[in-house]
Specification:
- The structure is a homodimer.
- Chain A has about 700 residues and is α/β, with parallel strands linked by helices.
- Chain A contains 22 helices and 31 strands.
- In chain A, strand 3 and strand 4 form a beta hairpin.
- Chain A is flat, with a radius of gyration of 31 Å.
- At the A-B interface, helix 5, helix 8, helix 10, helix 11 and helix 16 of A face helix 5, helix 8, helix 10, helix 11 and helix 16 of B.
Chain lengths: ~700, ~700
């Protein structure tokens, strides 16, 4: 279903047009009438004329079948009107009324279901209900249903704004000078889903960057597919994911009924797709505007040059760069000598540079200094400490004029104007500077954080990620969880090429004696039972068993202890294998997220995971580079590189294992959870070994034998 | 030397008064003439009249001896003018000219030294050189030497601003509506030091909160004394410490020549004194203004209530609270029932609350909801998601009017108005709201971070800290470092009551044999040498030695290995003692900071310190509560509380040891560095034991024997 008629209708009917200020009918009429490229008809059976236009009594009286109907009437009247439009052949609609599924009421849900059916039957793209509308500042069509101050005649394009909150969308729109291509308030998002709008924006060349206010997705596969397309096309997606906290998730779900989902899963998805995640609206807009203004002229390197007018501002600049680990490349003696031409004798040439008040108003010196930075390849862009606010102070104006003059003289690197304090930029200078690719940043701390996010975006390489959408959540029909014994789990993994070692389950001490010559001492002996998850806790483990006699005794004792400590547990026998040589302990796991499918988790054993939560997470499947990056991202990764005289570990084999396990998870949709703990990582060249394995499968009731009521 | 004549002069001479716009002479004349409570004389030998006033040729021609002289002339003329003023009996001066010690030039340094001498001789309080001046908005005296837009007739008082950068001070002053009592630009700070200004503000009741832009301190003892006074008086000190990073420190030192110092030491000092540390100017001003506006009405509990007008804003509010671990107390069923009276049926009563657009403009409902929060004791204040900017939007105005009306009706809890985006607040509403103790916050993320800093400030208890100023930096005359052997170090510590175990140095294997019946096997045997710091590395350690024969052999081998691996090292013999029972490993250390004296460091052994840098630091001496808090602050403290079946550890004994060691460091100014690694912490009730000890002393050359060239 193409969204063209919704995003760029050539003709619009405002159904329920009104002149009551602030009402959907009045705002819709006013806004749509400002559309440059669409014919607008106002429909109201009780008024002959509205907003200086003759009205129509019903949709059927219009002189043409419109592309899009804006339904401004209350909840109960929406469906008949939509049906009328659909039957006339209208293929798109915007519904503002609330009171549907977001209120969790039976009639609201039923009405929205009917709306969905209607949309399906007639192939109609319905935005909403409970939305604030859509603005297309590319084709100049305004389908917004609330007060809207955006002037499409003057507003530059660039950002595709997509918000699961009309109020947030309105807030965004009110940002002076924001470069907007589209604003979409997706409302309940059950008919035209957010995911489809995202896909549309991903494909539209008029969108340079996508700004997403996201409470939750419905269709994870479609969502990740769109993110993949954006990643490959190098179109930045900035997301403010709301509902990160438990309280926030509750707030989000009581808002539009969205499922906020598992925040860690979203984080992992965002990292995989190079999505820039921000913490607040100010960061969202600063990032989006930065990309819109830079356009195709992203910096070529991640280092920054700093230019400030006082020692204080310069020191704060250096400290904020340090806080966000932004690189300030040092200057060569030659660069310093060149800088000295433009600064007083008592000033110190350095990066960042305190150019001192001597620079106040001196355009030539400013350009001279910018020229030094222009020629240093490690410096991708220059931050200029300056606030060009509405008062247009003399010093600020001179700095801004110098930046503009630098552009005229062919200097090309991005400049970021960084004010110390919050405020309102001068609209005149904002327009002048942004037209030249000069970015007006938010106040300093936010500014440097956003520059760090830009650095991260630049460092992201889609080719280092397996962007095959997997997103296979658990089959909802498969409600039962089967726990496999360690032996079964290892057999499955072993067949998949995972190094699990040579082990066997013995049913009796006699069987063990009979196989005496196969045993390679010392042995590890562990109870084999699908009902015992923590084998050590119930006396089910004996390690370092050194001869047959000990082994027979251990066999008997293990069964005794487990019978005593876990009465009723099904005991298959004892799993016996040679003791694994001790290696560095890794923990590898898979959890199937209810939305994004299997996620691979990796961490180092012991306090690393348990005290410091030093783990990395990625949606499956992952590729080799991704596995390496995940290992690297662990703070404990120093241990892999050889710590305190310990050998360098076989990270390659660990990465290979991660890739293999991630593929296993993708190919086995019944896998609900996998826990390889520990995995021993041996010195370089000597591989890895899975020492213990726990596997949980989800399956329909009839499939397995060892089943429990699912609760995950 | 009282600073009264400098901070609140009754008569002022502007020496070098001028009418050249932007010059010190012109700005000083204009600014000082606006002083309500001081007589101002303009001195200029070449002009008869300036700024509508008759001028005086020299200071000696003035009709009175002024309290304070503003010296607006260039560097070379400053000293004669200061001398003239001093000889006339003037007791305070402000010097704007730069080119002194901050430029590191020989003549600049010499001139500043002369100025210091003059100040000392005549008891003159000289602010500067290289400063921007001082504003006293309490007594309405303006000694600022640069453009100044601050209107002392209308500006409320509250904050004492103290800045080691004139530019930053100007930036701060330009903040609309900031409640300012004083602004002091301390310049080079070698005559009237920053520390004295801080002390003045600490004692002045007209200062409710101190905002400090700090590059470095000169007199750590005076600095911490002032901080201690502020902490005890519960006067908040907010500090933006610049020069936190290496690059930043370099930038700071080339600025005013201040020593940025060790950032970790500053952090530790700030924590001890409850100083609120911020990252940028916006946070500094948001925090300072918050305290100024709240005045004596700080919240009574740290929990927050949240009131928002949309689901989106509400979710972001919840997430930001989560990010900064701000507590949003849950609502009782009764509270929820009360809330339901004021929100639509489809809305969900919760904290934070999405009151929905139904609240738009409804003052009664808004007050109703505030009333619910007013009665919940766990909620100390309420954040209201709203931006009251210069456009004074209808919804915002209604919310603000509701807040004002709530005050009229006796509601007392702090309200924090939190805008989503950066902008400029409406001056009219800012004034109205702040007068009622309602705080206009910076944009959301900064706002919630500042509320978290407020929470931390509220949780700080001066009585849980030993605020005895110690600040005993190493004696600069003591340039030589003596390394003590483990035995010597332990003997000193043992005499101080530190549990070090029973050990003895044997000079020969024969001596060892002779003491056979005193030995309690198994033994730990370690080389005793002041030249060997890492005993294991050169084969100088043997553990678990189980009988005399083994011990004799070990003795010989240890000496052999050390002779081979550390040729030239002085070998005292072998330190022999019973093996210590294994306990949880703690690392305890002391480092003498060059400014703040001895700092105690504590961390858990192994990866905790080495990979995660999980350490806590505090200036000595510390009290018992402080020791407990330091241990608690470690992420690894879970191990002390009994981790994975391990016993609960004797944290009390560990805390006691920390206190004892901190006192040792204070009482022994020669102690340069102490490293107790490991300290074994035994199960509860069984104490601690120092297993190894390294001690470095600083002393004059003649004092010791085992000495090396100091390099610390």
């Amino acid at each position: 279903m193409s969204l063209k008629k919704l995003f760029a209708p050539r003709s619009i009917a405002v159904v329920g047009a009104s002149d009551r200020p602030g009402s959907f009918g009045c705002c819709s009429a006013e806004n749509s009438l400002r559309s440059a490229s669409a014919r607008v008809y106002l429909v109201n059976p009780r008024k002959k004329e509205l907003h200086g236009q003759s009205t129509y009594e019903t949709l059927s009286r219009l002189p043409e079948t419109v592309d899009c109907a804006m339904i401004c009437t209350p909840k109960q009247t929406v469906l008949p009107l939509l049906r009328e439009a659909a039957e006339l052949g209208t293929k798109a609609a915007v519904v503002f009324a609330s009171g549907f599924s977001e209120e969790h009421s039976a009639d609201g849900i039923a009405l929205e279901r009917e709306m969905q059916d209607l949309a399906g039957k007639y192939g109609m793209s319905i935005l909403g209900p409970n939305c604030a509308g859509l603005i297309n500042n590319v084709d100049k069509v305004n389908l917004w249903g609330m007060n809207c101050s955006l002037d499409m005649n003057t507003r530059p394009a660039g950002i595709g704004v997509l918000a699961q909150s009309g109020f947030i969308a309105s807030n965004i729109m009110a940002r002076p000078g924001l470069h907007i291509s589209y604003v979409v308030s997706s409302g309940n998002g059950n008919i035209v889903p957010l995911e489809d709008c995202l896909e549309y924006m991903t494909e539209d060349p008029a969108v340079r960057v996508i700004a997403l206010y996201l409470e939750g997705v419905r269709d994870a596969a479609k969502f990740t597919k769109a993110l993949g397309a954006a990643a490959r096309a190098r179109k930045p997606v900035i997301v403010l994911k709301a509902g990160k906290s438990a309280v926030g998730a509750r707030a989000a779900s009581s808002h539009t009924g969205n499922l906020a989902g598992n925040n860690e899963a979203y984080r992992a998805v965002f990292r995989k797709y190079g999505v820039v995640e921000v913490d607040c609206l100010e960061e969202l807009l600063c990032m989006a505007q930065m990309f819109a203004v830079l356009g195709d002229h992203l910096p070529r390197s991640t280092g920054l040059g700093g230019l400030n007018l006082s020692g204080g501002a310069n020191t704060i600049c250096a400290d904020l760069c340090h806080l966000y680990r932004l690189e300030l490349p040092g200057l060569s003696e030659r660069d310093k000598a060149r800088m000295r031409q433009f600064i007083p004798a008592f000033a110190t040439p350095d990066n960042p540079l305190d150019a001192t008040t001597a620079l106040f108003g001196d355009i030539e010196k400013t350009i001279g200094l910018l020229q030094v930075y222009e020629q240093i390849p490690e410096i991708g862009g220059v931050t200029v400490g300056c606030s060009i606010d509405i008062t247009e102070g003399k010093v600020s104006v001179a700095i801004c004029e110098a930046l503009l003059e630098a552009r005229r003289r062919g200097l090309k690197k991005p400049y970021y104007v960084v004010p110390s304090l919050e405020g309102t930029p001068s609209p005149r200078y904002q327009e002048k500077l942004e037209r030249e690719g000069i970015v007006l940043m938010s106040s300093a701390k936010t500014a440097y954080r956003c520059l760090a996010l830009l650095r991260d975006y630049m460092n992201y390489r889609p080719e280092r990620h397996d962007l095959t959408p997997s997103a296979l959540p658990a089959d909802p029909a498969a409600k039962h969880t089967a726990v496999l014994t360690e032996y079964e789990a290892k057999r499955k993994l072993g067949a998949w090429g995972v190094p699990v070692g040579d082990e066997r389950v013995f049913r009796s001490a006699e069987e063990l004696s009979g196989a005496a010559e196969e045993l390679s001492f010392p042995l590890a002996m562990k109870i084999s039972s699908p009902d015992i998850l923590h084998k050590t806790d119930c006396g089910g483990v004996r390690l370092g068993v050194s001869n047959l006699e000990e082994a027979r005794l251990a066999f008997t004792q293990i069964l005794e202890h487990c019978r005593e400590n876990c009465p009723g547990a099904l005991l298959d026998g004892v799993l016996v294998g040679p003791m694994a040589e001790k290696g560095l302990e890794l923990i590898l796991g898979v959890k199937r997220d209810s939305q994004f499918g299997p996620l691979l988790l990796v961490g180092l054993g012991g306090v690393f995971v348990e005290v410091f939560h030093d783990v990395a997470l990625a949606p499956c499947p992952i590729c080799r580079e991704e596995a390496e990056d995940l290992l690297q991202s662990l703070r404990g990764s120093v241990l892999l590189r050889g710590y305190r005289g310990e050998p360098i570990r076989d990270s390659g084999a660990a990465a290979e294992l991660m890739v293999r396990v991630s593929r296993y998870a993708v190919e086995h949709p019944e896998l609900q959870e996998l826990d390889l703990n520990p995995v021993f990582v041996y010195p370089e060249g000597r591989g890895v070994r899975v020492v213990d394995a726990l596997m949980l499968l989800r399956q329909p009731e009839e499939a397995g034998t060892n089943q429990k009521e699912g609760s995950a």
